[in-house]
Amino acid sequence: MQTSANQRYYYLDWIKVLCISLLVPYHAAMIFGPAHFGIKNLSTHTGYNIFNEMIGMWYFSILAFISGAAVLFSLRNRTTGQFILSRITRLFIPLLFGMLVIIPPQVYVERLQKQQITPGYLDFYSHLFDGVYPVGNLNWAQLWYIAYLFVLSLLLLPICVYIKNRPHILQEGFRYMQKAPYLLILWALPLMLIEYFLRAYFPFGNQNLVSDWANVLHLSVLFLYGYIIMRSAYLQDAMLHCRKLALLLGLTGALLYYIPYIAGTFSPYQQPAYILRWLDTWRGFNAWCWILAIVGYAHYYLNNNNTILQYTSKAFLSVYILHQTILLCAAYFVVQWNMPSFVKFLILTIVSYTFSLLIYQFIILRVRFIRFLFGG
Questions:
Q1: 304 class by beta-carbon count within 10 Å (0-12 exposed, 13-18 middle, 19+ buried)
Q2: CA angle 226, 78, 73 (to 5 degrees)
Q3: Whether the Cβ atoms of residue 232 and residue 3 lie closer than 8 Å to each other
Q4: Nearest in space to 328 (alpha carbons), one of 365, 292, 355, 361
Q5: pLDDT of 1 strictly over 50
Q6: What is the DSSP-derived secondary structure letter of residue 132?
Q7: Are 310 and 365 contacting, i.e. CB atoms less than 8 angstroms apart?
Q8: Residue 362: Cβ within 10 Å count
Q9: Whole-number Å distance between alpha carbons of 313 and 305
């Protein structure tokens, strides 16, 4: 059986589109939940936190998996040097541009709401390099994942090239998966170990790369999983076989966790350290189950191409870069309105979607230099 290195997997693009579709309401919900975020509504509700946790348990994990798979396509007709150049133009330049141009308005409206500065954007921007957020104003906000992906792509490139040059490793090494496909579930073990031993020391919400070893290792493992599985027909068949069991395990784990949480009989934030450690371990297992379920079902039902996918998959990165700045700038005004929080949530979600796509359609697509700054 040959590897699948010369195929295109449209279902991965559909998952990527699904992810950006969820990211806008995910960040909008943070405005109305108790967790820290740049702009906050006066009243908050834990329901928004629960919504975000249910998405967050697999969201960036599956993006890392897809990012690893994307390296397979990127290396197909590129040398190592060409790949590195593509990472610079596709990731590093948008990151730098975003930190200097797109992200500062987010920090500005946050400082205004907290009454830490007086109005005047130019005066605020003159202090952009006085320090790193949250003490200073220089921040990469939602672009943290682009920074991580850029670094991980380069660090893990030697492993990917080694596998590319030795395809027989995957053809023969995973032949056993034909008879035991459900062993793919056990690939969760490295994630569980990372969460058990490291998460207590490197908690969520600290995406500064240099002291965030739990996330760095977690994302690295999934990045390599994506690259390896998409190169092996045996592993892809195993993933298809596992999708039903993985969905069952993911749903069961989520229900056991969130039903008591919603009912108010269990709070994950008020537990002793050893309980928190096992909860983190469960999250590692659950994340892998959801990845297998989502990728497996997408493979089965969504491996097709059309004009909507072609457009949205190209708009993905631009919308990712733009949406949170539009969201927070609009939220600075909307949270002051006297209306139910859910109505505000819907307004902000629609505004962020709409203006992100309008900017992409009428500015980024039409101006070559700007398209280059957004990784196009």
A1: exposed
A2: 30
A3: yes
A4: 355
A5: no
A6: B
A7: no
A8: 10
A9: 11
Give the pLDDT score at 271: 82
| Measured distance CA(249)–CA(138) in Å, rounded | 41
For residue 316, give both structure tokens. Answer: 């993905």
Q: Tens digit of pLDDT for each residue in 184-195? A: 999 999 999 999
Please report which confidence band the pLDDT of residue 105 belongs to, taking 50, 70 and 90 as the band edges.
Answer: very high
CB 5 within 8 A of CB 231: yes
Cβ count within 10 A of residue 28: 29
Report the distance separating Cα 230 and Cα 95, nearest Å. 27
Task: Measure CA of the first residue to CA of the last residue in the chain; give whole Å.
Answer: 36
Which CA distances in Å does 289 have to 113, 123, 358?
A: 40, 49, 36
Using an 8 Å Cβ cutoff, are 230 and 13 in contact?
A: no
Cα–Cα distance measured from residue 295 to residue 62, given in angstroms and rounded to the nearest whole number: 8
Q: Among residues 18, 11, 49, which one has the least CA distance to residue 32?
A: 49
For 121, the 3-state DSSP assignment is helix
The 10 Å Cβ neighbour count of residue 134 is: 11
Q: What percent of the chain has pLDDT over 70?
A: 98
Phi, psi of 158 (to 5 degrees): -55, -40
Residue pair 348/340 in contact by the 8 Å Cβ criterion: no
> What span, in angstroms and rounded, lies between the C-alpha atoms of 72 and 232?
11
Residue 18 CB-density burial (10 A; 0-12 exposed, 13-18 middle, 19+ buried): middle
258, 161 in Cβ contact below 8 A? Answer: no
Query: What span, in angstroms and rounded, lies between the C-alpha atoms of 207 and 56?
Result: 14
pTM exceeds cut of 0.90: yes
The token pair at 150 is: 């850029």
CB-hemisphere CA count at 13 Å for 64? 28
Alpha-carbon torsion, ordered 226, 221, 75, 235, to 10 deg: -30
Calpha distance 116→138 (Å, rounded): 15
Q: What counts of helices (H) and strands (E) characterise the chain?
A: 17, 0
Instruction: Give the residue from 317, 356, 337 showing the smallest Cα distance to 31.
Output: 337
Reading the block at residue 341, the tokens are 């929080």
- What's the mean pLDDT in 150-170? 90
